[in-house]
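From the shared-data thread, chain only:
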Amino acid sequence: MEWGKVTKQRRERLTEGIEIVLLIAVVGLNIWWMVYRYGGETYYVQNGKALNSYSISLPTGVAGTGHTYLGLGINRHGAKRRIKFRTDAVAPAPFSKSKIVKVTVNAHYGVTNYEPVKNAKRLPVSVRNQLVS
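Structure, as tokens:
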């Protein structure tokens, strides 16, 4: 076998290897971006007061009302932070005053996700002791 010649089989293997490396790179970059953009510290906020209301467009094309909330958030380590977040078309309904909301705060983009807590028994113990009376 000559070193200067590349057989068809070796060329196909090389092409497959390059495709696999590129696929791994694209998947890795996608995972990194999702963590960078949407990841963050989770806080649990017992709703304080609704600051204001504003108009939003719901997925059905109907106009709705969104709300801005300000409350004291507590993470699983017991650290406290004042958090302000706005509801969107996914869950626009107003929250009751005693409702606990799980909020993800991203260092670069602020609040990236929120969802009402359905079962207070599933909260971390440090949070449950401070929020649930």
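Residues 98 and 108 are 29 Å apart (CA to CA).
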